[in-house]
From TrEMBL:
This protein's name: Interleukin-1 receptor type 1
UniProt xrefs under PROSITE patterns: IG_LIKE (PS50835), TIR (PS50104)
Gene it is expressed from: il-1R1
GO molecular function: hydrolase activity; interleukin-1 receptor activity; interleukin-1, type I receptor binding
Gene3D superfamilies, per database record: Immunoglobulins, Toll/interleukin-1 receptor homology (TIR) domain
Amino acid sequence: MLWEFYICFLNVTLLLHLSHGQEHQGAVEVHHISAGHFFQLKCSDDDDAKDRTTVTWSRGGNQTLNTTPGVEVRGEVMWCLPTHTFHNGHYTCESEYPTGSWEMKFVLSVDPGPCPVPAENRTVSQGMSEVVFCRQQDVLSLDPTAHIRWFKDCSPVGKHGETIIEEDCPKRLRLVNATESHAGVYTCLVEFSLQGRNYTATHSTQLKVNKEKVPLKPQVTYPRKETFTVEPGSRVELVCSAFLGVGEGTESESSMFWTVDGRHTDHIEQLNVTKTTILPRSSGVYGRSTLSIYEVRPEFLNVTISCIARNAVGRDIGFLWLQPANHSGFYTCLCLCLAFSMVVLGVAMCCLFKVDLVLAYRRLLLLVSKKRAPDGKLYDAYVSYVHGDGCSKAEMSALQVLPEVLERRYGYTLFVSGRDDLPGEAIHDVTSETMRRSRRLIIILSAQSASPLHPKMEDQLPLHQSLQDRPSYDQQIGLYDALIQNGLRVVLVEIDGKVDYTSLPKSLHYIRRKLGALRWRRPSSGKSSSTASPNGHFWKCLRYHMPFKPKGALKPQPTPGINCSIELY
């Protein structure tokens, strides 16, 4: 062909030119390219490009490129936009450095034919897989959105029935199980934009397929270097997979075996190669071997266990190690979970049995505590009650029940409104002073409490106020201390059912919502009346809200029968 003769002529001319004794640094590159496509020459790829001072391009030894149409120089790069047959010839790039110069020579051979000229030759054995790359990284860096199309012998790939897979990263073709039909010229056509104009660039690879399969060394694919965690004394099966080669006779010439710490498994008890399978496939021969360890002994731990694959060409080894399982993490997590569960259970128990725990703690303190230091208080609790019209339940509870249990049995000191008042005393002054010298305020409410007034205050109200408009004075003072001065703790006790707080002061309603109330009910109908046990839930809760009674308190005394039932809600 004419273009082949021209290429030979250019090469001979270049050799004659170099043989005349002229000395040049660098190398000579010969490029076979196709007309009509973008092409670039790069002066050098060395790492000293940053130290380069000037770059000079020339053609034919001394001709500048300014007169060559379709050629643009960008520093160390020369572009052909696009290539034409008149671009054939010799090009020189000279780089100047502070320490000298570097010169590279290029030979361009532009083919006018419709199919791109191969710039690379590759050979693959029949039955093997091969990859063809699109070597246009410089072009793809100019336009990352470039589009690539693949051709084989100037036709789109895949039209000849071959198994060809296009892969995008990197830009390449993968040929699976190569056959004679895969032979040919593969071309990647890159369509891109540069400076507002569209161009194409090509790279072609001549692929040849050898009919004779070349023997290959085996390769252990798994394991390569693996570590397994095992339980000492347990049974373990280890699997090894390997590629054993290609071609006829590979099956008979290939083998797989195991060694433990350099010793063959045939010489070690508790070890047995239970199964070795040789699998011939279209892409080659593969093997799989299983090593069974009936009991993991200490001598099998932390030693090298090797899987060896061997054929007529050579061998390959895969390594693995067995290490004993470390349960410290499991036990740590277990301990943390148990500790957390115990904390949650403890908190739940404290919430559920808070009253019993506090009372038990107080009983223990009685064994070691001394007499209480004076705090200026005379009474443990001030007892006030709301007296409804025609109802004496609250009064009965204040005057009979509480003194029977709290005073006689548990030694508390109570001031009961209506019981401990002295005739002729100024109610306002006495009540205020008594409240100041009390540690708790117990307010007893009954379900029939319609009037929040103490009977003794009726005659002291203005004429325009009714009995339902004001709380008793002692309750006013106590609620003021509890809500404003935060100096007196209030305990609400409800007698016989739910109390309607709408007719009572808002301060009582607020304390009811915030602190709750203790409820004392009569026994249900049909049940015989029984004595309210001091260990019952109501009395436990009431004692919980009462202040601690140190040594010196009165010892418990028997309590007479009380016709009531106690409940906390």
